């Protein structure tokens, strides 16, 4: 049996909605149309071409190439309409049996390509777990979203926890400048189900030789450029840390110093990664709604 028109809102469990859409296309008549409401993060992932297991390539032939049109419903709008905490954008898909190219529109990002292709060090290789010695930056904003995040009212007002400017902290031997133990420093909008005590080490951090280097790194994560990368790369809870640059061996084009011996400003990142004026305008326009 085939159908001229299919209207659907399949369950979103992992990529189940894509599997259902995949099978439903086979039920269309030659001129049939399928209209579907479901997440679009698999189409928004600018790192898809670097991932062998990307959902985009799993469904490129069976679903992506048949998308004729798509209207994006932001996570904020979806949360309001459905009265639910949404941390992902939804899409109203219009699908038929024709073939179309959606990769360039939803996946390709030349700015992200420039960063990945530069082959700098990456944050994933610098993270250390359950230690507190020396100067360290705790990077809560680069950890996976806590399991209870979907139930947090924060999800209703902020697209991603990673965009908050106050989620990294500098500690020395596990203590902040005011003497507070790292576990007593309240994080804005972050957290998780586990409560830590003063006997616990920092769950996830990066080590630095000096306070100055730690502060320079922390400040770099608050630049517009860095936060743009986080926004574009974080299409869901599975944040690909192995693609986020760490400038440890890079020479700052402004100061001539290595790594975080000096601070990295937006202008420094622009010059190092050869970001054009038009690309910088795109970055600023993208990030404008997220500055709080």
What can you tell me about this protein's structure?
- With 292 residues, the chain is of the alpha+beta class.
- It has 2 domains: 3-108, Rossmann fold (3-Layer(aba) Sandwich), CATH 3.40.50.150; 111-290, no CATH class.
- It contains 11 helices and 9 strands.
- The chain has helices at 16-25, 41-44, 55-58, 75-82, 103-106, 110-117, 154-157, 211-220, 224-233, 266-272, 277-287, and strands spanning 3-8, 28-39, 67-73, 90-95, 121-122, 135-139, 168-172, 205-208, 245-246.
- Strands 1-2-4-3 form a 4-stranded mixed beta sheet. A 3-stranded antiparallel beta sheet has the order 7-6-8, with helices on one face. Strands 5-9 form a two-stranded antiparallel ribbon.
- Strand 1 (3-8), helix 1 (16-25) and strand 2 form a beta-alpha-beta unit.
- Helix 9 (224-233) packs across helix 11.
- The model is unreliable at 143-164 and 188-193 (pLDDT under 50).
Order of helices and strands: EHEHHEHEHHEEHEEHHEHH
* Helix content range: 25-40%
Strands of the largest sheet, in order across it?
Answer: 1-2-4-3
Oligomer: single chain
Average per-residue pLDDT, rounded, comes to 84
**Number of beta strands:** 9
Low-confidence parts lasting 5 or more residues at pLDDT below 50? Answer: 143-164, 188-193
What's the total helix number? 11
First and last CA, distance: 53 Å
Structural class: alpha+beta
| Total number of distinct structural domains | 2
Beta-strand fraction estimate: 15-25%
Radius of gyration: 21 Å
- Main sheet: strands, sense, barrel: 4 strands, mixed
Overall geometric form? elongated
